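Record minuted for completeness.

…
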Amino acid sequence: MRRARRPHAARVLDAANGAGAMTGVLSIMLFLTVLAAALGLATWGATRSLDRQLAGRMTVQVAIADPAQRDAAAARATALLRASRDVAAVRPVDRAALARLLSPWLGSDGADPELPMPALIDVDLADPSDATLTRVRSALARAVPAARIDAHEAWMSPVSGLMRFVTLLAVALVLLMAGATAAVVVLATRAGLEAHRPTIEVMHMLGSTDVQVARLFQRRIARDALVGGAIGGATAILVVVVLGIKLGDVGSDLLSAATLGGAGWVALALLPLLFVGLAALSARIAVTAVLRRTL
């Protein structure tokens, strides 16, 4: 008797019964999963970078109309901050730098010496805790009542909160896509079982066990998932690379911090393998559950 050219797994779920469509669906699922994972990893990295940059940083603003009084008050505040053990660094912002910051709104008028501008002092705290900030704020309030403290972490907290929400949303999307992938595999496996019920009954009469039948479906699903994962994963990683280049061209420090890093790229590279394992496991569980009930 002439042997069949293809193994049993290829005959149980052949292309005529939707294997090609299955590969396409799995490719799309992994493409979306990788994009969601890349979004979550990038925003998580950007959030951590933002928190490190803002922790313990504040700006002291002295707004007095009279220039002489303003400069004297700023000098007292600078001296007090430099003498404090709670302060790690003090950087007064000169008028030229402040004029450059205001130039997008004021243009050349920002350099006008008659234009009243507040004195700004950038401060790094030795300990980024609320107690340290409270002590520094109280000392400044006593010595320089006109000084106002703006904690960077406080006024950037909405941005940080938004980025944390986006990270959690990306995690939820990855989990949803994993559940949807498992559901698609289960439905395809059950359809294959129903289409090949007579063949499976003959295999049982010849001595095949449920586990052996499940392996046939598992191998075919794993092969479809491997092909679809390779296509979808490679396409998604290419999109992520292009987006990274585009974000780098924007020139924003916050967007530039939204990078994956070495660990992030490794995680994205491992996703297709986890995807194949999930698909194969889902197929095996679905087959054994159905065969145990019906055949």
Observations:
- Residues 1-13 have pLDDT under 50 and may be disordered.
- The CA atoms of residues 59 and 122 lie 5 Å apart.
- Strands lie at 57-62, 87-93, 119-125, 147-151.
- Residues 210-250 form the longest helix (41 residues).
